[in-house]
Design a protein that fits this description.
α9 links the parallel β16 and β17. The radius of gyration is 19 Å and the shape is globular. α4 packs across α5 and α4 packs across α8. It contains nine helices and 17 strands. The strands form four sheets. Strands 3, 4, 5, 8, 9, 16 and 17 form a seven-stranded mixed sheet that branches. Strands 12-11-10-13-14-15 form a six-stranded parallel sheet, sandwiched between helices. With 327 residues, the chain is of the alpha/beta class.
Length: 327
């Protein structure tokens, strides 16, 4: 097998050729068809997440085909097309897991972070944490569903039944949320990097009723806002934009420090919440919605060996699409 792995902190990814592993008990081996590139992958390669162990192979938005099943796994799964997401495994026994909050499990394992990810030709995955993927769509078009879609969906649910929804950071997750909101009849207000006119134009083309810079004041108060950009400075900005009783959701795994802000921005029963990881229930719900709403993802394809270039394009905001690696 081949993989693009980071061998030590601060280094670019390196192409490695290794023996293709066999799955263990309860595991399967996927032949990776496509793996989308996520901002969380940048947090991994930039060393911004705790307890990183090297070498690390990023990638957690994977669509692939099961080519081998280990012991204890239904052999009928061989040949199935599936998706692998950020949550690679949970303990199933702690209080969080027993109460339906496996996303908060202290012993969870995460694809592309604490276990090898999808920037590779093959992936070993726990069979219980995979999602059936439709056969009638391209793997590349579905790969963003596995994180941008899942985390976007969890963040959207946390925002509640907001009719006027602000989305700060109109990347992969923002675009998917925008498409689902348009299908649901909600009004999306898109906030982008200062001067990013192409992103604002794209947001309007996807159905946003308004688009502007992140520090702009929207034309009317919002019912809720989701912050996908990893910028803590946006928290008081978003709180200022939502009405009393509104909610601001922090949708990323990493964010720069939140500055102090006057209590009056939170007062009026506004809420500030975060979403963490995902549950398998989230995945099943989102996939039903994605199919029903016919969510299409704009993608730009890169060969696996160009993973460093893809990461850099995402980092610099050079593409108005989701980068997807093809082994």
């Amino acid at each position: 097998m081949k993989s693009m792995s980071q061998l030590a902190a601060g280094q670019p990814l390196t192409l490695e050729h290794r023996t293709t592993p066999d799955p263990g008990s309860g595991e399967v081996r996927l032949r990776v068809e496509a793996c989308a590139v996520c901002r969380t992958d940048l947090h991994v390669v930039d060393g911004e997440l705790p307890d990183l162990r090297y070498p690390v192979t990023p990638g957690h938005e994977v669509i692939g085909v099961i080519e081998q099943a280990g012991s204890g796994v239904d052999q009928g799964m061989v040949g199935m097309r599936v998706g692998a997401a950020w949550l690679g495994k949970a303990c199933g026994q702690c209080s969080y897991c027993r109460s339906g909050k496996e996303n908060l499990c202290d012993f969870a394992e995460f694809t592309g972070y604490t276990r090898p990810g999808g920037f590779a030709s093959h992936l070993i995955a726990d069979a219980r944490y995979l999602f059936p993927a439709p056969q009638d769509r391209s793997a590349a078009s579905m790969a963003p569903w596995m994180c941008a879609g899942l985390i976007g969906w969890r963040a959207l649910r946390a925002a509640g039944p907001a009719q006027r929804l602000g989305v700060y950071g109109f990347g992969s997750a923002g675009r998917l949320v925008g498409k689902i909101c348009a299908w649901q009849g909600r009004h999306v207000y898109a906030f982008t990097r200062a001067g990013d006119v192409p992103a604002q134009q794209q947001a309007r083309a996807l159905g946003a009723v308004w688009a502007g810079d992140s520090l702009s004041v929207p034309p009317e108060q919002l019912d809720a806002a989701i912050i996908f950009a990893p910028e803590g400075d946006l928290v008081p900005v978003a709180l200022k934009a939502v009405r009393k009783g509104g909610c601001v959701v922090c949708g990323g795994i990493h964010m720069s420090d939140i500055p102090s802000f006057p209590y009056r921005l939170l007062w009026g029963e506004r809420q500030l919440v975060s979403v963490a990881n995902l549950t398998r229930a989230d995945g099943r719900e989102f996939l039903d919605v994605a199919v029903a709403s016919d969510v299409q993802c704009d993608v730009r394809l890169y060969p696996l060996e160009a993973a460093n270039a893809a990461l850099d394009d995402v980092r610099m905001g050079r593409i108005q699409a989701t980068a997807v690696l093809i082994p």
